[in-house]
Amino acid sequence: MIRIATLAAAALLSFAAAPAQAQDASITLTYETGAHTGKVMVALFNSEEAYNAGQPVASAEADASGEAAVAVFRNLPAGDYAARAFHDVNGDGRMNTNPFGMPSEPYAFSNNAVGMMGPASWERAHFAVSGSTAQTISIK
Question: Per-residue pLDDT for 3 more than 70?
Fold first, then answer.
């Protein structure tokens, strides 16, 4: 009986002594835009479930007035991520669509992934992050 208690205590102590997951990863996404107006609106996802449900772990607005728009996400745990973005050319804060629901403003996905009859899949868009990670994405 004492041996079981000793094993349980050792397991609890080793669990308590385990370091917390580091929050030292960062992602820098540079968007090459065709127009130098408005902002690039970026949503960052940390799982396939969140990506498919449209529930980002973080979001950013990157000024598109220069040659490129840059979004930076800091203090992230290491893991897999994917990003969706659209270029809000007219500055109204939303993705504009045509009467058929197709986007009328430029959009892009991490890894420059493309979708087939819809958004790019998690499989195509996700990438591993540990430490500093950067991507340059063409938004069209």
Answer: no
Burial of 124 (0-12, 13-18, 19+ CB in 10 A): middle
Q: How far apart are CA 101 and CA 109, in angstroms?
A: 18
| Placement of tokens 């349980």 in the chain | 8
> DSSP letters of 100-132?
TS-B-S-EEEGGG---SSSSPPHHHH-EEESSE
State residue 22's pLDDT score: 56
> pLDDT tens, 11-24?
333 334 434 455 78
The 3-state DSSP class for residue 62 equals strand
Residue 23 phi, psi (nearest 5): -115, 50
Question: Across-strand partners of 84?
Answer: 43, 109
Burial of 87 (0-12, 13-18, 19+ CB in 10 A): buried
| Start-to-end C-alpha separation, the chain | 67
pLDDT tens digits for 38-56?
Answer: 999 999 999 999 999 999 9
